[in-house]
Amino acid sequence: MLEATLHKGFPGRAESAAFHLDLQFTAATGVTVLFGPSGSGKTLTLDLIAGFTQADSGRVVLDGEVLYDSRARVNLPARSRRTGYVFQNYALFPHLTLRENLEFAARQRPGGPSTGEMLERFRLSEVAGRRPSQLSGGQRQRGSIARSLIGQPRLLLLDEPARGLDSGLRQELYSVLAGLTTPVLLVTHDLDEGYALGAQMLVMREGHVIQTGVPRAIAERPATAEVARLLGTYNVLPGPNGQWRCIEYRHVEARPREGELREGEFAATLAHSYEHTGGERLEFAGGLLVDRAPGPLAEHWAVRFPPERLRLLR
Questions:
Q1: Three-state SS for 83?
Q2: Is 250 in a helix, a strand, or coil?
Q3: What is the pTM of this model?
Q4: Same domain, 180 and 144
C-alpha cells in the first residue's frame, strides 16, 4: 500500500509559468493509473515517490515504512526506497547485453529471482546476448521491466510504458503487466491504456487530482466539465443555471438534412470527417463531435441530443 501526500512548487520565470503540485492519494495492489495531459505533474509525481526529486512538504509511506516525511525530516535516498522505475527511454545500459543488464540489477539486491528466470518469464531468452540497440522497442521495454523487477521492488513506477509501441507490442506489454503481483503506478495520457490496465485511475490536471475511481466508472460518469473534456469522448455543453451538461460523441444523433427539422433537432454544418476506431467521426462547425458508423456525407445536417443521454455536471 502506498500513501502519498505531496506538495512541490516551481516559481514562474520569464519564459515559464509557475507550477504547483498539490495532491494526496493511496494506491493498493494492481495498477493505479495517473491520467492527464502533458504538464499535469504525472512524471513529477513518480520522481517524488522514487526519491529522484524532493518535495517541498508532504509524506510518502510504502507498506508501512516512511520514505519521506517533511515534518519528521525523513527522506530516504532513492536507492533505499525499493521502487522500480521504468523510464520513457527504457534506461538500459547501452554497453551491456540484455543478460548483463539484468545481472547487474540482480547483484544490487541478491536473493531474488534468477536472471534466467526473468529472461524466460518475459520471453527474452533468445535475445539475451544482444545489446539494447539490437533489440526491438517491445524487447527493450520488457527488458527494462524485467530489470526493475529482478531487484524485488515493493512498487513499480512506469512512465508512458507503451509510448512508441505498435498495437501488437502494446498487447504484449499489457499481458506482461496484467500478470504482475507487484503494485504498479503507471503514467499515461492514453485513455484506452488506462481502461486496459487500471484498477484505479487518478485524473490529474495542473498538479491536482480532480477525480479518482475505477477507470470505466470515471469514463461513464465524469464528475465535472473539466474531467469530461480531458476524457476526450464527450461534448461539453452549457446547461441550466450556469451548470454544464455532457453527452458522448457516440450518443449524438446526426443525419444528412433533407426537408424540415424534426422535433428536438437543430441544423449543423459539417466541417470535417475522418475514420476513427472502426467508424467515422464527424466534426461540425462550432466543435461538436459525433461518432457513428460510416455512411453518406452531406454539408448540411440535422443533429439531436437524446435527452436521456445528456448528463448534468458540476
A1: strand
A2: helix
A3: 0.85
A4: yes
